Each structure stands twice: as C-alpha cells, then as structure tokens.
Amino acid sequence: MHGIFTWVDLSALHFDRAQTFYSTLFDWSWDRSDPNYLHALLDQKPVAGLFPMPDLFRKINMPSFWMSYLAVDNIQKTVALAEKLGAKIELQTTNSLGEIALIRDPAGAGFTCFQGNAPSALSNKPNHWCHNQLLVSDLSKVRTFYESLFNWTFHPKDNDYYEIRNPSGQTIASAQVAPNDIKGEKEFWAVFFSVPALEPSLKKTQSLGGKILACYPSQNGEHVLIEDSQGAACYLTESNTSSPPTHTNSPLKWRTIVGLIAIFAAVILEANWIWAALFLFWIIPDLKSGTTHFIEPLTRRDNPILYWTVVVTWLTLSALMLFYR
Fold this sequence. Notes:
With 325 residues, this protein is α+β, with helices and mostly antiparallel strands.
C-alpha cells in the first residue's frame, strides 16, 4: 500500500456551508459520529472527509482546500526521508485515520501521508473522487523526490503528460507540465470528481455560489475546474470519462510560428485575405472550447455577452478583410 492514494478530504473555513454545498452538488449525506470530522456517504459508504480549517491555516488566511492522502508503511521514516529530499513538513498529528503528515514537495505541491486505516474512496462511479493529477511548471524539480519517496515511475504520454505508476506497474495518478495561465502560479495536486453529467453539475455549482474557472475539452470528454463557495478548487469530469485532461503545452508552438509568418506576409503583400483567414482561424478554437481571450480570458458560461461580442467582432473583421478591396 505504500504510496497509494486512498482518501481525500476538505478543510473548510465554514463547516456548515461546506456540508450544504457538497450535499447538493454530489448528493452526499454525512456520518456525524465524530462532530469534528465528518465522512461523506454514498450508498452508506464513505467517499470523502470534511473537517473545520485548523487554526494554523486560518491564521495565514488560507482558503478552503481539498487534500489527497497517500498510505505509507512508516510515517516517521517517510517524513524523515521527505525532509532529506527537500520537502517541508507543515503538519504532523494524529486523527481518525491514524498518524498523518501534511507534506509540501520541493516545488510546493501539498499532499498528506498517513499510517493507519482508511477506506479506499477512489472510484469512477458518479459523485466519487476519481483521480489525482500533479500540475507542475518543471517536472525535473520534483521527479527525483517522488521516485525516491514512493518508488514511483513517470511514463511520458502526450503534451507533457505523464502517467505515474507504482512498483507493481499500476497507474495511480498523473502529472502534467503546464504553464501558469493553465494551472495558476502555484504547483499543486489536483483532485477530480466524477459526475453523471457536467451541465447540471455546473449549474448547481454556480447556484450554490461556486465558480467555473476553466474548461478543458479533450478526446475523452470535457473536464472543468471549479471553485466552491469558499475557494476550494477541484475538477469535475463526467463519470463515463476514463482519463484526466491533458492540457496542450507543446514545446514547438507551430501554430504560433505559422500565425507570425502569416502576419508578416499580410503586411508585406498587403493581402487582406490573409488577415481574414487569421481572424477566422483565431476564433474557431474559441467557439469549440467556450473560452476566448481579449486582454483577459472570457468564458461563454460566465461572460456570455462579452464572449459573444468578441467572437462576433473577430468574425466581422474577417468578413470585412475578405471583401474589402
């Protein structure tokens, strides 16, 4: 079991509000046997945990956050090795799971190790925690850390996406090298929840005071990064989706290169039809993804008026350039 994800919980600033949010979003009920640490239930089986934000984190104004747990053989040895490898130990205590330690890897991504007993909550069923993905700017800064701490191996796939496997060859998570405009400024372990259908779940999210941060279409379906009403972020993905998103971050930005060449050609040749083609190709991906950019990102869901204004503007300019002589 060493180095296997088995549990996930939410550290909430407002305990009651968090219960209402996730009860509505995921149809969870709550086991209140321990008033300080609730277990979310589906079909009477525990699927996640919820507890009030510790005072230590409240003092530094940390928002609510989801945390993944990794089982380890020996918590003391794991903590000592993690520190030796450059990690920071933010919290070490005992709770209902057993002995736990909140660890930040050398790049700052946080996870919790525990030695004890916890149900295995990972599942592809609707309204369950289904996957973990490490989002990093530079995998080389933490790859040796995880390989040494958990005996993991990283297997490259597409678009700087890696499968993470344990010594038995089992894929237990993934890693994605992504720029800050995708992942934000910090490195982190992203938590994924499956839902029966995205659209109703996203409407619930917004009606409950949550936010839709980004949408990532892929060959496996759409994956959406949301933030709950207290700032805790997680991904929603449809339950028939078998793989997490791979955010395109190709080292060779050939589309950008072609676009720059086209701009120079349009200026030198005074060819308006090239401008028309550029505006058109610019907007087609935005229509597919539901997100466009003009000074700042705009989504079809959150900013429909501005989104369609920008889209129509580019299409109008494309038509004018095509027919203008």
